[in-house]
Amino acid sequence: MKTPILGSSYVTRSVNAADARMVNLFPEIIPEGGKEPAYLQRCPGLLTLATIGSGPIRGVWSFTSDTGTAFVVSGNNLYKISTSYAATFLGTVVGSGPVSMADNGTQLFIAANGPSYIYNTLTNVFANISDVDFPGAVSVGYLDGYFVFNEPNSQKIWVTQLLDGTSVDPLDFASAEGSPDGVVGLIVDHREVWVYGTNSVEVWTNVGGVDFPLQRVQGAFNEIGCVSAYTIAKMDNGLFWLGADARGRGIVYRANGYTGQRISTHAIEWQIQQYSTINDALAYTYQQDGHSFYVLIFPSGNATWVYDVATGAWHERAGWQNGVFTRHRSNCQMAFNNQIVVGDYQNGNIYAFDFDTYTDGGSEQKWLRTWRALATGQNNLKRTAQHSMQIDIESGVGIPAFPPYQAEDLAAENGDLLLAETSPVTYLTTTEYLGTPGYDPEVMLRWSDDGGHTWSNYHTASIGKIGEYYKRVWFRRLGMTLKLRDRVYELSMTDPVKTAIMGANLLISPTNA
C-alpha cells in the first residue's frame, strides 16, 4: 500500500491528531505525465558568495537603474558591491535591527527605524538625512518621484521632496486616521501605498494634491493590522504580512483586492503562538523555478516558516547546529547578478540560493519528513505487522570518497577544488568532484508507535553510489504497532546530495487485536 509521505507541513497542538513535519523539503505538483501527482524536493542550499563586513546582514538592495550594483548593510556599515561581489565601504548606519531601503534611480534611501540615510550614486556622497523637519523613518518606498515613509511611533506618513530624499517639507505628511491605531509600516505596490497599523490597513494613492500628493482610496480600508513592519512583502502580484487586530494576532495574510485573505493554517498559527514574542518577526519573498516563496522568520522563536504560492503549502527552513534545528541562516533577500542573494543573520556572509548546493555555506543541511503510516481515515485502531517499506527516491546520486568540500578548500583560480589529500597536489573542477565515485549516501528512518511522542532508534539505508540509478531503497522488519496502534514515520538525511522523493510503499498485515 502507498503510505502518504507526500504533502505539506502540518503539526497540530496534539501530535496524535496530526504530526506531518516537513523541514528543508517542499512539494512540487506534477500536472501531467508524472509518476506521481507530486514529489518532494530538497530546498536550495547556501552557496557562499562573499563575506561583507562583520555582519549581521541587516538589509540588501539591488539598485533599480544599475543592474550591476547592489548595496549591503552589514552590522553598522553600508557597502556597495559589484557583480564580482567586491565590496566598497560607503558609511555608517546606526542600529542593529533590519533596515528598509528604496531608490529613485539616483538616490538610495536607507531607513534604520528612525535615523535614515541617503547615498547619491552620481556624487558618491553618503550622509544621514539632516533636514530639521525629517522625523525619522521605519519603512520606506518609492512612488512617482517621491520617497514615502512612516514616522516612528505615530500615525503619520510622509513624502520627501520630488526626486530628493534629503529634503522634507514640514507640511508634507498626513495621518492614517481610519482607525486610532499607530502606523506600523508601509509598502508601495501597483503605485499605491498600503499603510499598516496595529489593527487596520488603509490604502493611499497619488492624486497630485498641492499640499500633500497622497489621498486615501475610498473603500480601501479593513480591520486587519500588522505585527511587524518587516513582515510586509510583495510577491505574485500581491502583498503578504503577519497580521494582528483587536481580537488577536498571529495569522498570515495575503491581499485579495483591498482585503486580507488568510493563508496560514491552524497548525502554523499554533506554532506562531508558542513563540515568546513575534514583534521581531521579519520576512522576504523570492521566486525560483516557478515557485514563489514567502519566507517568514521568527528570531525569538528561532524558527523559519515558508509559504509556497504554487502549492499553497507550508514547510520549515532550518539550519542544523549541534544536533538541533535552528532558524534558517538567511535574514534578507535580493535578486542580483542572476542569483537569489540572501544575507546571514549571524555574520557578514552573503549566499546564493542554489539547488545544486546541498550544504548551508559548507555546514550540514538536514532535511526531514514525518508522516502517518496510514492515510487519513484508514486507521481502524487495530494492531498491524509492518514488514517493510520501500522509499521511492532518486537513487544513484552518490557522494565523493572524501569529506564534503568546505569553502576554504576552494582554490583561488577558477573556483576549482584543492585536494590536499593527494600528493602531488591535485585540482578538480566542482563537477568532477561531485562526480567522483565514492561511498553511498544514506537516508535515516525511525518511527513512533504512540502518535509522535517517543521514537525508535534510527535505521539507515543506502540510496546508491553515483550511477546506481536502479538502487532500491528498502527498510525491513519494521515490527508490530503497539500502544495506540498509530505509527508515525520520520525520514531524514544530512548527506550533501540531490533529493527527490516520489513516494513510499508499505507492506503491512492487519491483525484482529
Polypeptide structure, described:
- This protein is mostly beta strands.
- The chain has two domains: 10-43 and 369-399 and 438-510, Sandwich (Jelly Rolls); 56-281, YVTN repeat-like/Quinoprotein amine dehydrogenase (Methylamine Dehydrogenase, Chain H).
- It contains two helices and 46 strands.
- The strands form twelve sheets. Strands 3-38-45-42-43 form a five-stranded antiparallel β-sheet, with no helix packed on it. The protein has a five-stranded antiparallel β-sheet with strand order 4-5-46-39-44, with no helix packed on it.
- The chain is elongated, with a radius of gyration of 25 Å.
- The two termini are 20 Å apart.
- The model is unreliable at 402-435 (pLDDT under 50).
- Provide the CATH top-level class of the largest domain: Mainly Beta
Record the strand order, biggest sheet: 3-38-45-42-43
Instruction: Supply the number of helical segments.
Output: 2
| Uncertain stretches of 5 or more adjacent residues | 402-435
CATH topology-level name of the largest domain: Methylamine Dehydrogenase, Chain H
Could you say what the CATH architecture of the largest domain is?
7 Propeller
- Please provide the count of β strands: 46
Return the average pLDDT rounded to an integer: 91
Through-space gap between termini: 20 Å
Structural class: mainly beta
CATH superfamily of the largest domain: YVTN repeat-like/Quinoprotein amine dehydrogenase
Shape from CA axes?
Answer: elongated
Number of domains: 2
Using only CA atoms, what is the Rg?
Answer: 25 Å
Helix amount = under 10%
Amount of beta strand: over 45%
How would you name the oligomeric state of the polypeptide chains in this document?
single chain
Major pleated sheet: 5 strands, antiparallel
